[in-house]
Design a protein that fits this description.
alpha+beta; Jelly Rolls; 4-stranded antiparallel β-sheet; 21% strand; globular; binds succinic acid; binds manganese (II) ion
Length: 271
């Protein structure tokens, strides 16, 4: 399911592109079922909101569930990812941000590549995030905000909030993000780029670039806003081995090149 030439150009120009109806309802039900099971497992890869009880995110889900492992090879995710990167890719991150009804907290303004470059040593921003809506995303339940075209700024120097201990990866995924853009930087960007908040039905997929400036508000609505995000990295853009790697559920060590598998095989219930 490659992007048309027009959609591909849109991605290059805006730093993101939305593909509606990329997944069937029965596929979404199977994914939600697996996510529901994983959310019951109390371990470090399950990150909570500041209240200490609401689930904020589940990380590395593909490393713990066979169906979710196959999902990264689904044609609706992998083919556009290979297309925009222009070559072979592997899975860098796999997470579900749950943004619970009434309690889901903010994601401050940031660029993803600031984390991948500074924390992991990713050489170039030759990656892409594919965000699948598991719920309908509306103006009310905390949609992502993008600064359209801001990926062209490159990686903007940004303030670094130091967690300071061996568990500092936690602030990379919290509402007090390690790398954030300042109000002054956002004022400047606002004078040059327009805001967008892609919305859509469950089953839509948004592809967005590593340096696209984005964030999201809290969810005070009665509807959850679950999104599943697979980040693909170019196979020739692997970070150098680090002395202090972030946990594997947050940054996967390179596997081989991913190959597309037919969607019905992705969702086959194997013995
Ligand atoms: C969100 O889920 O609203 C933010 C996702 C991200 O910044 O990666
Ligand atoms: Mn992000």
């Amino acid at each position: 399911m490659l992007l048309s030439t027009e959609r591909h150009k849109e991605y290059e120009r805006d730093g993101y592109v939305v593909v509606a109806d990329a997944f069937f309802p029965h596929e979404l039900n199977l994914i939600r079922q697996r996510i529901g099971e994983l959310s019951k497992v109390d371990d470090e890869s399950r990150v909570l909101e500041r209240d200490g009880r609401t689930i904020r995110a589940l990380h590395g889900c593909d490393q713990r569930d066979a169906l979710l492992a196959r999902l990264v090879c689904h044609p609706s995710l992998l083919e556009p990812a290979q297309q925009v990167i222009g070559g072979e890719v592997y899975t860098y991150q796999f997470k579900v941000n749950t943004k619970a009804a009434f309690r889901g907290d903010v994601w401050p303004w940031h660029q993803d590549y600031a984390f991948w470059k500074n924390e992991d040593g990713m050489p170039e921003p030759r990656a892409v995030s594919a965000m699948l809506f598991l719920d309908d995303v509306t103006e009310f339940n905390g949609p992502l905000y993008f600064m359209t075209g801001s990926h062209r700024e490159g990686c903007i120097p940004q303030s670094h909030l130091d967690g300071g201990d061996h568990d500092r990866w936690r602030s990379d995924v919290s509402a007090d993000l390690t790398y954030q853009l300042s109000e002054q930087q956002m004022l400047d960007l606002t004078s040059r780029y327009e805001l967008a908040a892609p919305k859509g039905a469950a089953g839509s997929v948004v592809f967005f670039a590593p340096n696209l400036v984005h964030g999201s508000p809290s969810n005070i609505s009665a509807s959850s806003r679950r999104v599943l995000i697979v980040t693909y990295n170019a196979l020739d853009n692997i970070p150098k081995p680090s002395e202090h790697p972030r946990p594997e559920f947050l940054v996967a060590r390179p596997s081989g090149a991913l190959a597309v598998i037919p969607r019905e095989v992705c969702f086959a219930v194997l013995p």
